[in-house]
Amino acid sequence: MKRAALLITYHLSLITATAQVGEYRTDFAVGINGGYTMSSIAFVPKVPQSMLGSPTFGFTARLTSEKYFNSICAVVAELNYTTIGWKENILDFDDMPVPLHTDPTQNLEYMRKMNYLQIPFFARMGWGRERRGVQFFFQVGPQFGIFLNEKTVANFDVSQPEFNPGTTDNPNPAYQYRTARVSDVVAQDTMAVENKFDYGIAGGLGLEFSHPRLGHFLVEGRYYYGLGNIYGATKRDNFARSNFGNIVIKFTYLFDIIRTRNSKIK
Question: How far apart are the C-alpha atoms of 158 and 181, rounded to whole Å?
């Protein structure tokens, strides 16, 4: 009797586990996204800077494949257009803005804006409602970027010798800011992007509100860490590192193309 009870308990546990694990579905949704990106570049040697803010927008596709225990599992792909780069903090030794030597009423200003197509792929896990209600989700995966073009916004001509300190071995006597600027790292101001392909890891947390007729409304906070450099990183190059770091606030709307027929899905 004891053996029979153990066998019954074992088989019941298997049935319960089968009912709980791997509840498959094939839900496919597509839509649009938009938001705001705050970007910077981790230069080595360091370039004092603040984050450059710009809009981002694109398309999203999501395939929900199963519910594993309480986790709703899906894969997500996006194609986004975004402007990223950096905005320099040109400061003196007292952390104050540096005036332009030809017009002291203006402070030196420089920013670089680079346009990219970004293609992230995410493995996503969600907890909550799928069809009607609120769901919390986490997603992470690789992201690839294709450089399109760039634009410099500055109130001085970075190519002029009075803005170029030269090198330690060969200083430029025409340089006007040697005792004014806390940082003489300026090579990046005249360098075009060298590596046109960017790659890294992105991850985000968010909330989704779903309605069977209206679709899915998502808000997400995301961080991207670039593993590639925009400039060469050999000993002969100016920078040992020049990789992106992006913070993104994103809103997404999805509507269902394929929806699994299952009355148990809430």
Answer: 15
